[in-house]
Structure formats: structure tokens, C-alpha cells
Amino acid sequence: MISRKRRAQLLEKALHILNEHPQGLPAPVLLGRVGDSVALSAEELSTHPTRPLRRFEELIWMGTIAPAKAGWLQNDSDRWMFTNECQRAHRNSGSTEKFVARAATRSLRGWVSVYSPEAHFFVTKASRRLMMESKVSRARSFRRARPTVPSAV
């Protein structure tokens, strides 16, 4: 298992790289730069059987949830970018661990992602699956419930 301190180190490197690019960076580019600039363990380079990201990429992504929920970081699928508030909060926190802990106090989802990341992953995955199944079920019900128009003989 990778420690909270190591997760903070990886996130620190990602935040440092982002700070050098005020216009932001696409997630794959940012994660690639972190991977190229930090010595990674075999565990951090490994991929989970059911997840497409390498472990260190997943840890960084999870580390951005609390700052994103706090409104400090834009981390959509196109681009990750600091907000002005993020730069101030990161500078004033003194360390990435304190920065993330402060961000976690601003939302329940952020708190869970910091203090129980596996639970956060499980709940997120389960809720996405339930939403998909609900949409499929509604679509099937709608198709069955459509009235048929009697044909004129």
C-alpha cells in the first residue's frame, strides 16, 4: 500500500508542473511528465486489473478530487489548471499534505477521497453503475409503454 505521504509527494510534483503552465495541461500530458520526472516503484507503475490507469496516475487523479471540489483546481477531461484561489491556498498551506487536508474540509466527497480513497472509488463506481442501469431500465420501460395505434382496416 502506498502511504499518504507518498501520495502527497506525487501530487506535489503534479502541482509543481501545473504551476509552471498557467494555461493548464491535458491530464495525459501532466501525468506523463510526472512519470518521467519522479522515480517510481514497481507498485506505482503497475496497473490495476479493472482500471486503465497506472497506480501513480490514479493516485494523482484521486489527489485532485479534494482541491477540485474546493473550487481550487479545474480537473476536467480536457485540461487540469490551477485557479487563482488554488495558487494562494497551495502557497499558504506550507505543504501539499496540509493543502489537501484543507481542501478536504470543504466538501464531503473531497474528505472521503483524501481519508478513504478506496471507499471513494468503490462508491463512485457503484453510483455510476446504478445510474447507467437506471437509464437503461427507463429506456426499456419507455419502449414497452408506448401505445400502439390501431391500424385502419
Would you give an account of this structure?
This protein is mainly alpha-helical and 153 residues long. The protein has two domains: 4-114; 116-147. The protein is built from nine helices and two strands. The protein has a two-stranded antiparallel ribbon with strand order 1-2. Strand 1 and strand 2 form a beta hairpin. Helix 1 packs across helix 4. The longest helix is centred in the last third of the chain and has 29 residues, at 117-145. The radius of gyration is 20 Å and the shape is elongated. 25% of the residues are buried. The model has no long low-confidence stretch (mean pLDDT 81).
- SSE order: HHHHHEEHHHH
- Helix content percent band: 55-70%
Work out the strand percent. under 5%
Alpha-carbon Rg, integer: 20 Å
Strand neighbour order, sheet with most strands: 1-2
Number of helices: 9
Q: Which regions are unreliable across 5 or more consecutive residues at pLDDT < 50?
A: none
Task: Give a brief rundown of this model.
By secondary structure, the chain is mainly alpha-helical. It has 2 domains: 4-114; 116-147. It has helices at residues 4-19, 27-37, 42-45, 55-63, 65-69, 84-93, 96-104, 108-115, 117-145, and strands at residues 73-75, 80-82.
